[in-house]
Structures are given as structure tokens and as C-alpha cells.
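Before surveying the methods themselves, it helps to consider a single example record, giving the amino acid sequence and C-alpha cells:
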Amino acid sequence: MILEFFAAMAAVAAAPQGAGQGPANYDDATNWLCRPDREDACAADLSSTIVAADGKLTPAQFRLAKDAAVDCFYVYPTISLDQSPNSDLVPGLEEQAVIANQFARFGEVCRTFAPMYRQVTIPALRSGMAGAPMPGIDRELGYADVLAAWRHYLARDNKGRGVILIGHSQGSGVLKRLIAEQIDGKPDQARIIGAYLIGTNLLVPNEKTVGGDFKSLPICTQAGEVGCAISYVSFRSNVPPPAKTRFGRTDAPGMQVACVNPAAVGEDRAATVKSYLGNRPAISSSQLPPKPWVAGKAVSTPFVQTPGLLTAACTTEGSARYLKVTVNAVPGDPRTDEISGDVINDGQPAADWGLHVIDVNLAMGDLLDVARAQSRAYLARR
């Protein structure tokens, strides 16, 4: 699920990389999952049920912003179930589902833009993890598509508006490269309200906010700070990153993995997170379906809010830097004490992935709060 993993496979990949394909054509509206002012993947049902600590269920409706003054540009994680090394440009149920889970709710704050791109697929990931890299993986193709979509957006849609970049996992890896090569230290950096690069190792110098992966775009130190990055990788409090982990550690001298908690930006204290957890069967065998939220009560909405159930804190343990997530199991609380969010490998949770599946969902409400605060500050400055 991460671009960096496939880069590590380069030495053993047998097939030549780069098939010479050009980037996708983003004049073609079918190559966008989301664009403003149309019915598309971002028009998903986002209704939720608030499950209180006493077991009371309260419905909550999603409200799309009217005349949003800012934009959001999203690159989704490894989600394609296409059986090829790179996906096609035809959205499947999985691409539509991840839009609902991770991005469409940002329509409360901004106009939403989400391109399809020919990413490395889940079958290719599994093949590589099994030690048999799938021939023909083209790691440049997905980036070329996203770069083309970004340039199309700037030329046709931006019109001087501020924009929030949002990605997860492979999508965050692609956006990291886009920022480093096209935005960081360049005129377009002035357009960036914030960059939410979640589920990836964003490197910064130890005890500093800038100077690692990005030379001038810093990590955020307060909720209303403009032009900075929110980044974290999440792990259960009782299952920290192992010694050999995909996330949370780096061997780069003098560097650490960035951790910015959307619920307590710039602080390492534990804070309650505002989650929007999924309440639908899993699309992939890489994740488990949710447990019943309250014994004896059915919840029918696609999302669930669980106030006070989860707390999170940016934590440094040895060489690991990560978002430590705690489930607050309270005696007498009728809600579940178990949440799904682990990557499942051979039927077992993979400790080195942490809570990768719900990195975004577990703090969605807080990310929206940060987006609102940053947007207000950006618009006031303009």
C-alpha cells in the first residue's frame, strides 16, 4: 500500500520498468472520480450514526458546503483490485468506496477534485510481499497521471484559489513527490493551504519542522497554520511499530518520521479523536469487517461516530515516531471495545502495518476541523 515499498523492489523486479505510455487525458471527465457540480463518487451516502457512551444512537447527516471558497485535491491509496500490475482508468467499487471513506466528506469544506490514476495494484503488492514481484510494474505511470491531473487542475480549475492536498499511503507517496518536484520552494507553494500526507513516512530532521523530504514546506505546529503538512502513521497503543516496520521508523541519519496529530496539532499530548469509522463489509480480504457497535442494537448508516472511544498521541519510542491510538475500554460502556483497522495477512493482523486501513477515518473529524481553520486563515490572509 505504499509507494516506498515498491521502490525497494526495484532491484529484484525482473521486467523492464516504464512501458512508454503517456499520462491520462484529464480533459476526459471520465478520468475524474470527483469534480465539482456533478453527481459522481463524491455524492456517496455519508450519513453517520453517533454511538454515545451510554449506547444511545443519534443520526447525523452530511452537509455539502455551498459555494466553497477553497479546493481539495485527493490521491487515493492502493485500493485497485485489478489483476494487472498497474490499474486501468475505469473506477471499480473499490475506488468509489475509498472516496466515500477518505475524501468525499471534505466536501463540507472545499470543492472536491480526485483523479483516477494507474496505480500499482493490491494484487501486485501481495505478489511483491510474497517474494514474487509481478512482472511489468510501472512505478512512473501513476505519478505521471497525477502530475497531469494536477497541471490540468491548475490550468482549468484553480483560478487563483487555495487548495488542500490530501493523500493516503501510495497516494501520499505520489503527493510527496509532486510537492518536492513541483511545489516546494516554487510559486505554486503560495496556493497550498495544507498538505495532509497520511499513512506514509514523511521525513523531517530530528526536533525540527522542515528540511527533510521538503526544503521549505514545514509540518504544522498549530491548527490554523497555513501552508504546512499534517502527517502521521497510526498504531494501536498495545501494538507499537516492531523493529522491522514499514511505517514510523527511518534509517536516514538525523531524520525522524513526522507525526502531527490532527486532534492536537503541534503537541504530543493524548487527545480524543473525532472518528468516522466505516460500517460496511470489507471490500478486500486485507481488512476485517467491523464488530457490532452496541450489543443488541443495529446501526444501518455507512459511518459511525464514537465520541470519547478513541484517543491518540504522537509518540516517540526509541527510533519510532508514530500516532499511538488507544481504545478507551470503560466498564459499563455498552459500546464495542474492538475496532477494525489492521491490515490482514494470511488471516492475521500485520503488526508492521499498524492501523493503516483506518489512518484517515480515525481522525476524520479533526482533519476537517484543521481544514476549516487553515482555510479561514488562508482566506483572511488573501
Observations:
- Residues 1-19 have pLDDT under 50 and may be disordered.
